[in-house]
Specification:
The protein is mainly beta. It contains four helices and 14 strands. A hairpin with a 4-residue loop joins β12 and β13.
Length: 254
């Protein structure tokens, strides 16, 4: 995998942290080690105390992508491109995370708690671009992560739900080699850009389901997706549901 390239605007750093509002946009490349081997581009948008980690929509991508296996079976990945994409939104005032995820072929909005990750900050350091980073190890919902963060950007957010360190997370992997994410570009802005309001204006927050309900839906999501796919196929088509468990980033049964 190519090493991330950083575009750093040093002239804005001092001005940025002299302001009460911290407005930063960080682009991350996110990779999952699955059969399909898809890489995704996401953005972390920090405005003041709140942060939004949002999936970048690629309009030219097909609505679904299939990976065919030698035995004739295939895996299917849906690309949600309508309306608001998948995201993780940190509402610092409410100490709450809202996230959107496809469950059973449908996009759902979930209200989650801001969970404390018990990070162990090690003495190991590494320079990523020009930033001196420290290595931290933490366990979160069934996986153990190694995260590289820099106190040069004193923001306690990072990609996805990896937060709570005394600096911005620039890169992270899990110990199983399933997940890898790395920052690629930065934009600093000392103006109120109000991107959160623009990107989230159509979200119906009152329709968010509680996390416990999401867990129940998530357990039956594979069966729900299979029934939806089966209903869309021509009459007479025979489909068999695989017993193989789809790998998840969050292992709720652990």
């Amino acid at each position: 995998m190519k090493k991330p390239v950083f575009f750093i605007f040093f002239l804005f750093l001092n001005l940025l942290y002299a302001q009460q509002e911290q407005n930063i946009i960080i682009t991350y490349s996110e990779y999952y080690n699955t059969r399909s081997d898809f890489a995704w581009e996401h953005q972390l948008i920090v405005e003041g105390a709140n942060a939004l980690f949002i999936e970048q929509i690629e309009k030219d991508k097909p609505a679904e992508e299939r990976t065919y296996n030698e035995d004739g079976s295939f895996s299917l990945r849906f690309n949600y491109t309508g309306g608001i994409p998948k995201f993780v939104y940190y509402n610092n005032k409410q100490k709450t995370i809202f996230f959107r995820k496809i469950v059973g072929g449908e996009m759902v909005l979930v209200k989650d708690k801001l969970e404390t990750i018990d990070w162990l900050i090690t003495d190991e350091t590494r320079t990523i671009s020009s930033f001196l980073c420290n290595k931290a190890i933490g366990k979160f919902r069934g996986r153990t992560y190694q995260a590289w963060f820099t106190t040069a950007i004193p923001i306690n957010y990072g990609p996805w739900k990896l937060q709570g360190l005394p600096g911005l997370v620039l890169e992270a992997t899990d110990n199983d080699g399933f997940y890898h994410v790395a920052a690629t570009t930065f934009q600093f802005n000392d103006q109120k850009i109000m991107l959160h309001d623009e990107l989230l204006k159509d979200v119906k927050w009152e329709k968010a389901i509680e996390f416990e309900k999401f867990l129940k839906l998530n357990k039956t999501s594979a069966e729900m997706s299979f029934k939806k796919l089966q209903a869309s196929m021509p009459r007479g088509t025979k489909l068999e549901m695989s017993d193989e468990k789809v790998p998840e980033l969050e292992l709720f049964d652990e």
